[in-house]
Amino acid sequence: MALTEGTFEFNLFLILTIILLIYKGILSIYLLSKVRERKQITGKYSLDFIFGMFLMMLCLFISRFLFLFYDFYFTKFNPATFHIEPNVILWRFAMDISMLGYFFILFTMDRKVLNFKFKGIFAYIVLAGMILIAFYPVSTPEDFIVLSTIGGLGLIAAFILPIIFFYIGIKTPGVRRYAFMIAFGIIFFAIGSALVIQSVIDPLRKAYGNDIQILIFALFFVGKISGLTLVSVGVVKFIS
User: Fold this and answer.
1) pLDDT (tens digit, 9 = 90+) per residue, 86-108?
2) Burial zone of 182 (CB within 10 Å; 0-12 exposed, 13-18 middle, 19+ buried)
3) 3-class DSSP state for residue 167?
4) What's the predicted TM-score (pTM) here?
């Protein structure tokens, strides 16, 4: 089901998307300021927690900006056009940028927080997903469903990062509240992201009709905004 430009649903989703962009932009700028402060103290840039969070948020900002054009101008949420070029090319590019952010934060947290306990394996799984997204052949709507499912590999971060922050919160009472806020924020953010994976939304669309797509995208934005709010506040307090 396509959304008609100018309708209430179309305008609402566009406004919510812009709000998401503003949130991500503000947090990216804040994290960059902290990276620069750290550089002034140490004299060099290092791939630490702050830098990893900045790279992830910057990638999420850029990918959401690209998805804005994909959703509202190229496809208008019409599943029949998701797999058609150049639409799918833009989707691949936006998704790979998003997953690049997850790669950076997973690698950083493994190396800096867990002393490379997992040898970067979760980050490398995301990297493998990026390669598959870039080259997996798509010519039918069914192919795009598979491609979208591969994109779900980026949600590995949704399972690993909360565990890390819960661990930090349990072991470090002084930052427990903020570590837990980040963990729950990532979970809410990931749930919102998972709702629009085509292997999830397509069966719901077939079972309940195309109108269910409006509810799903509304829940997508609620999950994203609430999750990002928790992450934003948690990261600011955690760093300070």
Assistant:
1) 999 999 999 999 999 989 988 98
2) buried
3) helix
4) 0.87
